[in-house]
Protein backbone atom coordinates (compact mmCIF):
# COMPACT_ATOMS: atom_id res chain seq x y z
CA UNK A 1 0.00 0.00 0.00
CA UNK A 2 2.82 2.41 0.86
CA UNK A 3 4.41 1.89 -2.58
CA UNK A 4 1.08 2.54 -4.27
CA UNK A 5 0.56 5.70 -2.22
CA UNK A 6 4.11 6.82 -2.96
CA UNK A 7 3.55 6.39 -6.70
CA UNK A 8 0.25 8.30 -6.51
CA UNK A 9 1.85 11.08 -4.47
CA UNK A 10 4.68 11.48 -6.96
CA UNK A 11 2.20 11.56 -9.84
CA UNK A 12 0.24 14.29 -8.07
CA UNK A 13 3.49 16.10 -7.33
CA UNK A 14 4.35 16.05 -11.03
CA UNK A 15 0.89 17.41 -11.81
CA UNK A 16 1.45 20.26 -9.36
CA UNK A 17 4.81 21.01 -10.97
CA UNK A 18 3.01 21.52 -14.28
CA UNK A 19 0.36 23.78 -12.75
CA UNK A 20 2.35 25.68 -10.11
CA UNK A 21 6.06 25.00 -10.48
CA UNK A 22 8.36 23.80 -7.71
CA UNK A 23 7.62 26.80 -5.49
CA UNK A 24 3.93 25.93 -5.56
CA UNK A 25 4.38 22.31 -4.51
CA UNK A 26 2.12 21.81 -1.50
CA UNK A 27 2.27 18.59 0.49
CA UNK A 28 -1.10 19.21 2.14
CA UNK A 29 -2.55 19.85 -1.30
CA UNK A 30 -1.13 16.52 -2.47
CA UNK A 31 -2.83 14.73 0.44
CA UNK A 32 -6.12 16.51 -0.31
CA UNK A 33 -5.94 15.62 -4.00
CA UNK A 34 -5.36 11.97 -3.12
CA UNK A 35 -8.09 12.03 -0.45
CA UNK A 36 -5.73 10.60 2.18
CA UNK A 37 -4.95 11.62 5.73
CA UNK A 38 -1.97 14.05 5.67
CA UNK A 39 -0.43 12.01 8.50
CA UNK A 40 -0.39 8.97 6.22
CA UNK A 41 1.48 10.92 3.55
CA UNK A 42 3.85 12.30 6.19
CA UNK A 43 4.99 8.78 6.98
CA UNK A 44 6.33 8.55 3.42
CA UNK A 45 7.44 12.17 3.06
CA UNK A 46 7.98 13.80 6.47
CA UNK A 47 8.09 17.24 4.87
CA UNK A 48 7.90 19.18 1.62
CA UNK A 49 11.69 18.90 1.33
CA UNK A 50 11.38 15.11 1.23
CA UNK A 51 8.67 15.19 -1.43
CA UNK A 52 10.78 17.57 -3.52
CA UNK A 53 13.78 15.28 -3.13
CA UNK A 54 11.77 12.27 -4.30
CA UNK A 55 10.56 14.20 -7.35
CA UNK A 56 14.09 15.38 -8.15
CA UNK A 57 15.56 11.89 -7.83
CA UNK A 58 12.73 10.55 -10.00
CA UNK A 59 13.50 13.14 -12.69
CA UNK A 60 17.24 12.50 -12.63
CA UNK A 61 16.62 8.75 -12.81
CA UNK A 62 14.24 9.17 -15.74
CA UNK A 63 16.82 11.22 -17.62
CA UNK A 64 19.49 8.66 -16.71
CA UNK A 65 17.26 5.86 -17.98
CA UNK A 66 16.89 7.65 -21.31
CA UNK A 67 20.63 8.28 -21.62
CA UNK A 68 21.54 4.70 -20.70
CA UNK A 69 18.91 3.25 -23.02
CA UNK A 70 20.19 5.37 -25.91
CA UNK A 71 23.74 4.24 -25.21
CA UNK A 72 22.76 0.57 -24.98
CA UNK A 73 20.92 0.77 -28.31
CA UNK A 74 23.90 2.49 -29.94
CA UNK A 75 26.29 -0.17 -28.66
CA UNK A 76 23.95 -2.96 -29.76
CA UNK A 77 23.78 -1.37 -33.23
CA UNK A 78 27.58 -1.38 -33.44
CA UNK A 79 27.92 2.40 -33.63
CA UNK A 80 31.34 3.95 -33.15
CA UNK A 81 32.09 6.00 -30.00
CA UNK A 82 31.38 9.39 -31.59
CA UNK A 83 27.95 8.18 -32.70
CA UNK A 84 27.33 6.74 -29.23
CA UNK A 85 28.10 10.17 -27.75
CA UNK A 86 25.58 11.75 -30.13
CA UNK A 87 23.02 9.07 -29.24
CA UNK A 88 23.34 9.80 -25.52
CA UNK A 89 22.93 13.53 -26.14
CA UNK A 90 19.87 12.80 -28.27
CA UNK A 91 18.44 10.64 -25.48
CA UNK A 92 18.95 13.43 -22.94
CA UNK A 93 17.36 16.02 -25.20
CA UNK A 94 14.46 13.75 -26.15
CA UNK A 95 13.51 13.06 -22.54
CA UNK A 96 13.90 16.71 -21.57
CA UNK A 97 11.69 18.04 -24.37
CA UNK A 98 9.05 15.41 -23.57
CA UNK A 99 9.16 16.24 -19.84
CA UNK A 100 9.84 19.98 -19.61
CA UNK A 101 8.56 20.49 -16.07
CA UNK A 102 10.66 17.66 -14.69
CA UNK A 103 13.65 19.03 -16.61
CA UNK A 104 13.03 22.48 -15.16
CA UNK A 105 12.93 20.96 -11.67
CA UNK A 106 16.49 19.63 -12.00
CA UNK A 107 18.11 22.10 -14.41
CA UNK A 108 16.02 25.22 -13.96
CA UNK A 109 16.12 27.96 -11.35
CA UNK A 110 17.43 26.99 -7.92
CA UNK A 111 14.62 26.36 -5.44
CA UNK A 112 14.94 28.83 -2.54
CA UNK A 113 15.55 27.12 0.78
CA UNK A 114 16.12 23.69 -0.74
CA UNK A 115 19.40 21.94 0.08
CA UNK A 116 19.87 18.89 -2.14
CA UNK A 117 20.85 15.72 -0.23
CA UNK A 118 23.45 13.23 -1.55
CA UNK A 119 20.88 10.93 -3.16
CA UNK A 120 20.04 13.61 -5.73
CA UNK A 121 23.70 13.82 -6.74
CA UNK A 122 23.94 10.06 -7.13
CA UNK A 123 20.89 9.99 -9.40
CA UNK A 124 22.10 13.08 -11.25
CA UNK A 125 25.43 11.44 -12.05
CA UNK A 126 23.86 8.69 -14.16
CA UNK A 127 23.74 10.78 -17.34
CA UNK A 128 27.34 11.88 -16.86
CA UNK A 129 28.41 8.27 -16.32
CA UNK A 130 26.78 7.30 -19.62
CA UNK A 131 28.83 9.91 -21.47
CA UNK A 132 32.00 9.01 -19.59
CA UNK A 133 31.57 5.36 -20.47
CA UNK A 134 31.66 6.43 -24.12
CA UNK A 135 34.98 8.20 -23.53
CA UNK A 136 36.53 5.29 -21.65
CA UNK A 137 35.45 2.83 -24.34
CA UNK A 138 36.75 5.14 -27.06
CA UNK A 139 40.07 5.35 -25.25
CA UNK A 140 40.32 1.56 -25.15
CA UNK A 141 39.53 1.43 -28.89
CA UNK A 142 42.05 4.11 -29.85
CA UNK A 143 39.27 6.50 -30.87
CA UNK A 144 39.99 9.19 -28.26
CA UNK A 145 42.69 11.74 -29.04
CA UNK A 146 44.49 13.83 -26.44
CA UNK A 147 45.34 17.35 -27.64
CA UNK A 148 46.90 19.38 -24.81
CA UNK A 149 46.37 23.11 -25.24
CA UNK A 150 49.36 25.40 -25.68
CA UNK A 151 48.11 27.51 -22.77
CA UNK A 152 46.97 25.73 -19.60
CA UNK A 153 43.42 26.36 -18.37
CA UNK A 154 42.82 28.74 -15.44
CA UNK A 155 43.85 27.50 -12.00
CA UNK A 156 40.27 26.78 -10.82
CA UNK A 157 39.73 24.58 -13.88
CA UNK A 158 42.99 22.76 -13.21
CA UNK A 159 41.83 22.11 -9.65
CA UNK A 160 38.53 20.70 -10.89
CA UNK A 161 40.35 18.52 -13.43
CA UNK A 162 42.68 17.14 -10.75
CA UNK A 163 39.72 16.21 -8.57
CA UNK A 164 37.90 14.47 -11.40
CA UNK A 165 41.07 12.69 -12.54
CA UNK A 166 41.19 11.05 -9.12
CA UNK A 167 37.51 10.12 -9.21
CA UNK A 168 34.90 9.35 -11.86
CA UNK A 169 37.16 10.45 -14.76
CA UNK A 170 40.26 8.57 -13.63
CA UNK A 171 42.40 7.36 -16.52
CA UNK A 172 41.33 10.05 -18.99
CA UNK A 173 43.86 12.68 -20.14
CA UNK A 174 43.61 16.01 -18.35
CA UNK A 175 42.85 17.92 -21.56
CA UNK A 176 39.99 15.53 -22.33
CA UNK A 177 38.59 16.06 -18.84
CA UNK A 178 38.77 19.85 -19.21
CA UNK A 179 37.04 19.74 -22.59
CA UNK A 180 34.38 17.37 -21.26
CA UNK A 181 33.45 19.93 -18.61
CA UNK A 182 32.88 22.47 -21.38
CA UNK A 183 30.93 19.95 -23.48
CA UNK A 184 28.74 19.11 -20.46
CA UNK A 185 27.71 22.74 -20.02
CA UNK A 186 27.13 23.08 -23.76
CA UNK A 187 24.89 20.00 -23.77
CA UNK A 188 22.59 21.39 -21.12
CA UNK A 189 22.64 24.86 -22.59
CA UNK A 190 21.48 23.32 -25.86
CA UNK A 191 18.87 21.19 -24.09
CA UNK A 192 17.59 24.21 -22.19
CA UNK A 193 17.27 26.14 -25.45
CA UNK A 194 15.23 23.23 -26.79
CA UNK A 195 13.02 22.85 -23.72
CA UNK A 196 12.26 26.54 -23.35
CA UNK A 197 11.63 27.22 -27.04
CA UNK A 198 14.74 29.20 -27.96
CA UNK A 199 16.14 26.93 -30.65
CA UNK A 200 13.55 27.40 -33.40
CA UNK A 201 15.57 30.24 -34.95
CA UNK A 202 18.38 27.79 -35.74
CA UNK A 203 16.41 25.92 -38.39
CA UNK A 204 13.34 23.87 -39.12
CA UNK A 205 14.85 20.67 -37.74
CA UNK A 206 15.99 21.15 -34.13
CA UNK A 207 16.94 17.48 -33.79
CA UNK A 208 19.36 17.77 -36.71
CA UNK A 209 20.84 20.94 -35.23
CA UNK A 210 21.31 19.31 -31.82
CA UNK A 211 22.85 16.20 -33.38
CA UNK A 212 25.28 18.47 -35.24
CA UNK A 213 26.15 20.27 -32.01
CA UNK A 214 26.68 16.97 -30.18
CA UNK A 215 28.91 15.77 -33.01
CA UNK A 216 30.95 18.99 -32.81
CA UNK A 217 31.31 18.72 -29.04
CA UNK A 218 32.25 15.05 -29.24
CA UNK A 219 35.04 15.88 -31.68
CA UNK A 220 36.08 18.82 -29.51
CA UNK A 221 36.42 16.51 -26.51
CA UNK A 222 38.62 14.18 -28.56
CA UNK A 223 36.35 11.53 -30.08
CA UNK A 224 37.46 10.61 -33.57
CA UNK A 225 35.36 8.95 -36.30
CA UNK A 226 36.59 5.43 -36.94
CA UNK A 227 34.43 4.63 -39.96
CA UNK A 228 34.72 6.03 -43.45
The structural class is: mainly alpha
User: Gap between N and C termini, in Å?
Assistant: 56 Å
CATH superfamily of the largest domain: Tetracycline Repressor, domain 2
CATH topology-level name of the largest domain = Tetracycline Repressor, domain 2
| Helix/strand order, N-terminal first | HHHHHHHHHH
**Strands, count:** 0
CATH class of the largest domain: Mainly Alpha
How confident overall, as mean pLDDT? Answer: 92
The portion of residues assigned to helices is over 70%
CATH architecture of the largest domain: Orthogonal Bundle
Organism: Streptomyces jumonjinensis
Keywords: Transcription, Transcription regulation
Protein name: TetR/AcrR family transcriptional regulator
Domain HTH-type transcriptional regulator MT1864/Rv1816-like C-terminal: 85-217
List the helices and strands and how they pair.
Elements: H1 2-20, H2 27-34, H3 38-44, H4 48-76, H5 81-98, H6 100-107, H7 118-140, H8 155-165, H9 174-195, H10 206-221
Amino acid sequence: MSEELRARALAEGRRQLVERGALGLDQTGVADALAVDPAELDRLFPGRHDLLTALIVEAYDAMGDSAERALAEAVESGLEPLQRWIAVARGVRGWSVANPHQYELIYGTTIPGYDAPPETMIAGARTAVALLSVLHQAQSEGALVSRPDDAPPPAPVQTAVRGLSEGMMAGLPDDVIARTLIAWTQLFGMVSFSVFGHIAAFGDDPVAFCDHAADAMGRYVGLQPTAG
